[in-house]
Structure formats: C-alpha cells, structure tokens
Amino acid sequence: MTERKQIALGVIPKETPFSWRYPGAFAEADHDFDHFRFIAQEAERGLLDLIFCADSVALRDDGMGMENVSHTGTAAYFDGMTIIAALAAVTKHIGIASTASTTYWHPYHLARQLATVDHISKGRAGWNLITSGQTSEALNFGYDAQVDGPIRYARARECLETVFGLWDSWDDDAVVRDTATGRFFDPSRVHRLNHVGEHFKIRGPLNVRRPPQGHPVICQAGGSTEGWNLAAEYADVMFSKATAIGEAQRFYRDIKSRLLQFGRHPDQLKIMLEMRAIVGRTEQEAHEKFRAVQDMVTEREAKDLLKQFLPGVDFTDCVMDEPIPDTPEINAAAQRFRVFVEKDGRRMTLRELTDTGFGSWILIGTAAQIADQLVEWFDSEAADGFMFTPHWLPGGLTDFVDQVVPELQARGVFRTAYEGSTLREIMGFDRPSNRRAAVQDYAAQ
Amino acid sequence: MTKRMTLALLSTSAPYAWRLGDGSSHDRLKLADYVSLIQTAERGMIDIFFLADNCGIREDRMGLEPMRGFSSVVIPDAFTLLSTLVAVTSHIGLVATASTTYNEPYNVARKLGTLDHLSEGRAGWNVVTSSMDAEAQNFGLDRQLDTADRYSRAREFLEVTRALWDSWEDDAVIVDPESRTYFDPTKVHYLNHAGTHFKVRGPLSLPRSPQGHPVICQAGGSEDGWEFAAQTADVMYGKAIALDEAHRFYADVKGRMKKYGRAPDQLKILPGLVTSIGRTEKEACDKYRAVQDCLSEDEGRAMLHHLLPGAPLDDVGLDEIVPEQPEIDAAAKRFRIFLNRDGRRLKLREVVDFISGGIGHLTLIGSPSQVADRMVAWLEQEGCDGFNLMPHVLPSGLDDFVDMVVPELQARGVVSEAYGEGTLRDRLGLARPADARWRIAQGSNLEAMQA
After folding, report:
1. Among A260, B109, B256, B282, whose CB has the most other CB atoms within 10 angstroms?
2. What's B64's domain CATH number?
3. How far is B209 from chain A (nearest CA, A)?
4. CATH classification of A8-279+361-444, choosing from 3.20.20.30, 3.40.50.300, 2.170.130.10, 3.30.70.1140?
C-alpha cells in the first residue's frame, strides 16, 4: 500500500491589522514573548511543521501615513531571527523559520545567524529569503528610494550562493574533537570561500561548523519572475497566495515546471498556500466569529489598508458596501500586487475585499468543512500544504489545533506524531550534500 | 556602606582546555551546555552573562593549521545565542558583542530592542569596532580599516542606534479599543538622520524597550576607546594585572567622564579576571597547570604571533627570561601584553601561559579566600567596580567559582544573597535614559510622524 501523501502545515503568528481590538485577543502579541511562546507551543501541540515569523526592517507606512498605521496592531514587531532563536529553547520539534532580508543584511551575518539557530535547535531552522520591497525599509539603510527589483534579485542570488558556500565551508566531519591527538578540527576539511562577485567579496570560512541540516530550510515568497525562478532553483518551500482553486493550480503547475528546468524533482519544493481558517462548531458560529472581527473595521480603515496593498492608488470614491470602482488604475495595481478584486465573475465590494485579507484564501465553517476544502485543494494540486494565519490570537490557533488538525488526521493526510528530528526530516526533504565544488580547498592554497 | 562588586561572566575558556576531558566539555554550539552554564551563573548571583563575538575566525597572523587544537575556531552568532538564553533565565543580564564596522544601525537597534523586550530589560551590547583582518576579509575589505575611521563610524553608529531606541516615546503605545488607537502617532518620531556614515529615516519598528537603552559596554584598548567609553559606555571591560596600574586606569577613565556631564558611578569598570580555584592553593595551581600542559610549545608560539605580533621571540626558550629589547617592549605596549609582574621580568613560558589562558588578563590562582581577598582589595582600593570573569575551564571553572568564591564574596558583603527586582540597569545602579522628549528639548531634529 502506498502511503497517502501528507499535507504540510505552518502557522504565521500574525493577526489581521485590526483583530487586536477583539475581546480576549493578544493585543500586544507582536511585541510580547509570552505570546510567541504560547503560539509556538500550541502549534507544536498541533504537530505543525513550522512556525514562521514574517519580518521587515521598518515601521511600514508605505502609502498609508502614520495616523492610519496607528490604528493597526501589526505596525510594531520584533526582529524575527531573535524570536525564533528564543523559541528554540521552548520547543522541541516544530520548525522555526524567519524572514531575513538579502538586501539589508550581509551574507556572512545571515549564514552565521541561521547556522547558530540550526545548531541550537538541533536542526529546526528555516529562512524565508526576501529582497525587501518597501520604500520605508530602503530609507532606513541609506537609500532615498526602493532599490530596483532586478538589482535586489541579483544581489539575493549572489547572497544565497555565498550563504550556501559559507555553510559548506566546513565538511560535515571537520570537527573531530580527538583528545588523544589533541586535534579539535581537521584544517584540511575547512575551506576558504574566496568569493569575489558583483555584490560581495568574502574570504571565509564561516566560524560556525556546518549546520545539522546541512542547509537550513530555504523559503521564498517572491511575486515576480525573478522570485519564482530563484525559488525553483534553490528553495525548499514556496509561500503562495490564491483565493480560487484554478488560480492556485496554475501557479502550482508553473512553479513545478520551473523546477524541472533547473533539474530538480517537483517534490523537492513544497508550495504552501497562505490560508485563514475560522472554525466554529456550526457554520453559523464560524461566520459570527468572522464578522465579529471584520465588523470592527471602519470604511476609512478599510481604505487605508487597501492603500498599503495597492500603493499609489486613489480610493476616495470607494464605499464600504459598493463594488470597487472598475478603473484602469485600480486594475493595473491589482494585477501588479496580486490582489484579487473579483469574485464569482463580479467586482467585490470594499467590505468583501477587506474580508479577503487582500488575497488570502479564507475558509469559514466547521472543522469538517474546512478539512474537506483543504484536502480538496491538496488533492487537486493547488498546494502541497498551507500556511495558516489565525484570524485572531490566541483563540484562532487553539480552535485550529483542537478541531481542524484531528479532522485532517482522520482523513489520513496529516501526521499523528512527529517523525524525524530536523525540519528537513519532518517535511520530507533530503539533507543537502556539501557543495564542495563551489569552494576552494584550503589545503591546496 | 560596602560597595557592591559587579560580576560579569565571559563565556569562553582556554581554547585547548577541552583536551582535559572531565569538566571541560563545554560545546559552543550546544544549547544544553549553555543552559547549565547560565543557570550556574544565576545561582552565583552573577550580574551579566557575556558572549564575545567575531565575524570571522580569530586566525590573524596564525592561519587555521596552528589552530587545529583550539575550540575557539567556532564562534556562534552571539545575539542569536543570547536570544535563545532569554527563555531559560530570569535574572541575569544578557550582553553580546556586535560590530559597528560590519553592521547597520537599524539591524542592531532592532535586535537589541527585541532582546530587551523579550528579557524584560536584561539586554546589553558590547560595542566593538572589529580589529581583525580575518573579519575585514569577510566583508569586502583586504584589511581592517584604520582605528580612527572605525571609531568615527562607531560614534555615529551608536548615536543613530540610541536615537532609534528613542524614536518611540515611553508611553506611545496606547492599545485603546475605544478610540481604535494602537499607538499615538504624535509620540513616534522620524529620525531623519543623515551623517558621514549613515542615512536613516526611522522610526524603529518596535516600542521603546524596558531599559530605554540596553546597557552599553565597551572594551576599547586604545586612547580612542577610553574616550569613547567615558563618553558613552555604561560598562567598560579593562585589562590590568597590578592594582596600582588598575587604579591609574580607573581614575583616568572616570576622570574623563566629567566633561561629558556624567557621574563617575555611571560607568562600571570591569577588568578581565582569569581564575583557577582549588580548596587549597596547591590544588588550584595543579588545576591551572593541568590545563596549561594541554598546550604544546608550537601552539603557544603560534599564539604569541597572533597576540604579540612583531616581537622577535622565536629564538627565546620557554624557560628563558624575555629579553629587554625595544621591538619586544614596543609590541607588548601596543598589544597590551604584560611582560613584567610583581616587579620582575617574566619567563617566556609565563607569558605564554598568560596570553593563552586569558589573552593576558589578570590571573588569580588560589584558594577561595585568597582569590576573594584579592578581588575585594581591588574593589575597595578603586582598581575596579567588579570583574569580567573568565574561568580557565568551562564548565568546571565556573562551578568552582560559584561554589567556592561567591560564598566568600557574600560573606564579605560585596555580592548580594539574592537578585532584586528590576532591569539590568536597576541592578547595576545605572540611570534609565530619558526618551525622545528630552532629545526634542535639546533641539534634536526628531520629527513626529503625526504633528
């Protein structure tokens, strides 16, 4: 009997910008460690593959203005890598992944930080590589405007290559710790990188031995051709967004076919679709929960939020319960920033669009209904797994763990215990062999 | 009232001590080893757990081959590791090194701000300018920048980082569902900093942290470094092996503070202190010798090249007195390695012991009361405000210190019996810096996000 393919599940501990007002919500979840600890341990109780901390390097006010940002609960947040390092000490099995920017960090730092998390967590680290697309971020690092996409991606590619090279600068067996000979490591198994490229010049080696996973799990969420190609060539996990199954399938097929072009097997990359699930004991209860959070959003806030997703567009004429205006300006922005403004062949209202979370797949219903839909999308090759974003914390996550996870287990598509110890083992990825070809043998110098 | 002794623990040991086997098994990449180490430190009422850091292997003038026996080849990213330790401690201060030469202020401000929040006010930053070529070569340079350039960047870096920490006023976060307001935009400020090295708009992406500013530590060995510390640091790591010299250094640095409007007690000076403790002096000496005997002559000489470059010592035998030659003395002065102790010139073996076991820091080998007496004498005679402890071996050297010396220090009333409440600043008696309102009153160009 062949084993049923398993769904990968992750959690993003980020609520909606307004759910902090919800009674009982973690109002300061983005900057209080106790909440992160709870979320990580709750997700581990649900046997999820990973917890993923999204991150940026700015208080993001792009296209929105500070007055408007001040109403959102998602403006202030911790450094992601710092959080996952702290979570390493309070979890045992779950993968811990964070975003880190290739534009505003240097490869040597990235390689060290991730290798350190991977060692300390015994092989559970993941890195969501991003190029940082916000102007507010550029302004904190000496620039007057956003760095161009192609330049960011060229730097990202070289950054990733050198990070791999640094992780591989130690052979797996380089540390011998032999008290008889007094030898701690074998210098012939430690290698210079001697990288000289367009963006970086790095001698190496890294001052951390090779990570337990070889390479921590690489995630990517790019929305451009450069990003898709980077993911297809190097990533283990790709985060995706879609609100309709056809759209998700097209994306899935596109990325998987790109993998073949890079000589990789389609299973070597898992596509994990962003998803919000609001669970109720009845469908009606689920809808009531959803509405209770959503109805806290005013028309003005909805417009301000929309401006963040579709920067540079004028939404003065939008009204909460009327269709989004059908203008070339809005349509062009919607296409560019992958925000879906139509549903069932008609324009959505501003309220409906706000309800979608601007491009997330939203499931509202009983645990069985939600599980059925997840399995349907999974079986139809719309996704290999899902990144669950709780609608509010902590309850949204607890509901999911207590109710949806058992339904998925009953359907045979989700584990009933962690198998394997590293994140790669848990997710079913091979451990990368040392890419020695990329490094120059130290002994040969 | 008895002056309190501030104690920091530098989590490194002699890099060859691992060869001993028993009691020397500390693995620099293993969480469980750090957990037991730091919990021992908390049991001993140590104020600060300090992780040094380099963004490269410490191989200048040595290369990897002579280091094959040194566990110091592995250096975990200090802030990452420290963040992990937040979750397994509740009182001890958490300080890590980060370089101003190879980082960006926004990234460092976020990491430290985050750590200060996570730890509820226990974070600190050892500000270094990174002086190794091996580090420079990992960051696009062929060799390290000049000291003056590094310090110019460091000053601006620290200024920007502090302004970022101040970009949120203390009471900017409101979290008021009634008014639908999460934070007050009139209390969050753009920096609009444009200087020689950095251009940063701000604000920081997180509210002001419990300590306002994490504790700032420095260890500069140069005139530039001392001035920088007198102006900006809360804690200064020093190097001295004789009390009179320590006192001169102490008085010099504290004397420089006045012109910056700072009270002398707002900077804690902590010389490095290598310890080897035994129930008797003989036992302590035997322990020390057992570690030092793990070091071969070749390795000792490689360390001399690394830490005392330019000194022609290759032809000097280990049991010979170090010759009094201008090149040797000049190198020793420049790299702050002491060749004399207790009024006599050292043998080369003693110098090797000295630099290999603790990069030339004060080394106390003895019974608990002998060591405690010396430490208290230094404290009382203004040689220091406390010590940066560097046990010769980890974890056993820390166990010895905590189990044997700390009770002696407590009996002498210089180390407390329990941690009090409050932040690391509170514990060290350091003032909490005022927030943005103070800067604005001083005429800073901070700009409220919303007028």
Report:
1. B109
2. 3.20.20.30
3. 10
4. 3.20.20.30
